[in-house]
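User: Structure please.
Assistant: Input sequence and predicted structure:
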Amino acid sequence: MERKELGQILLDRGVITLEQLEDALIRQAAEKKFLGEILVGSKVVTNEQILECLTEQKKADFVNLENFKGIKQDAVKLIPENIARKYNVLAIALENERLVVAMSDPADIMAIDTVRRMTNSRIKVVKAEESQIKQYLEKHYVESADLLKTASALKDMETAEESVDLNQLRVAAEDVPIVRFVNSLFIEAVGKRATDIHLEPQEEKISVRFRIDGVLQQFPPPPKASYAGIVSRLKILSNLDIGERRLPQDGRTKVKIGPSGIDIRISTLPTIYGEKVVMRILDRGSLVKTLDTLGFEPEDEKTFKEGLLKPYGMIIVTGPTSAGKTTTLYSGLNFINSPDKNIITIEDPVEYELNGINQVQIKPKIGLTFAEILKRMMRQDPDIIMVGEMRDLETAQIGIQAALTGHLVISTLHTNDTISTVSRLNYMGVPNYLIAEALHLAIAQRLVRRICKFCKHEDAEGAEVLKNMGIPLKAGRKIYKGTGCSNCNFTGYFGRIAIFEVLKVNVREIKKSILEGGREEALRELCAKEGFRSLKDAALKKVFDGITTVDEFLSKTVV
């Protein structure tokens, strides 16, 4: 109902047509988004027009919180403290299956949307004085104070390195403020689209950083003396030894945030001021995508699909750590996965479980290495094999033999670009004739940050930088960047997209060059004649398309 009312306001103002509204409502039902989001994304209306209409739509009742006696603590706690403080909102009651939320700005759709998603509730907004909301937030949320009490109880543990009281640690880990802090940490990280959470003990404080769009950003820390309880809580969740603080540990847990479960990989590392904890957030929605959403140019996407559909041969994806290689591999497997194919993967670790695919995790301590599993796997009648990484000559040799004997093998390698892949395999000890015969495709990739669409504007300085590099712009073409806004945490970027270079090794001239042991320089010249597009070309295309910035182009590619 609310969305239709917004549509009616837009119609009455003459901002949109009835046809545009009907199209948006159809998309809304399919995409599960707000009507305003769809209309703005389609460039039918502007953010300003939506806000004006929402202000008219949400002429909220005014509530004097000092005279409002019915504030329910169970309603207040439905909104996590960090969200309530960030947006200055206070849940005050549950009314007819709706959460009543007091706000100083009832037209703040981002705050309303965040609260709706976090609480999974329908929202009724009332207006209240900002100062009163802040006063009641302090009154009803006592998490910070409780954390300090817990911290006081844990103070003695910071010095007792050799004689840790495990019972005290367990009690602290189950303390309500500690549990609440850890839960809010996960919620905040997922809400911010973070891929990693870093908890770092320092001499006088704790540092909390989230990696968002590939860049670490600082967030409010807990009291330092509560840190032992927080680490213990994380260890309990991931089945680690809470008494062991001298050795690194690795574990895994799953938490439910909203409708879906999120896998979290936890790693601890002893430092001079305590245990550093890094948590990798694994979300299937980000790991398994359709190939057309990864960032491939149409011709390169077609080449990749053709390679995946071949009955045998090898495809290698290269790039540094956190370049999105796993996402590309998983998305490729998802594209070819069908009941008539036996697909087996060897991974370290298994990032996410894929339906219909047999996944094996290596365990070097008991002899289950990439090479050993790969040898055993050949007796399992595989059609398609994914090897997480070609780490050594034995693994590479077995993988290439599999590719030459009727299996499709896909894997990763750490090289700077596609052409270096050939040199790297040769350096590992694989003969050139085997490389030329088995390797069909080499794909190099990087991740570049997307410009935030909410604060995107023309970048004259960036255009001048390109001009000085000898890359002039065509007439009428503009370069863009983000100024920074609340939607992108004032970074100017929102999300990432991959850039690719794709080398078809099975092209006759290229195969011949590899067979003859041609150097990288000669191979590059040959590829250039074949119309090969490098990572630099791919990044520049994203700049010209208004997707990323000149700064990202310069930082992610060799120029």
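The chain has three domains: 2-140, 143-282, 286-449+496-540.
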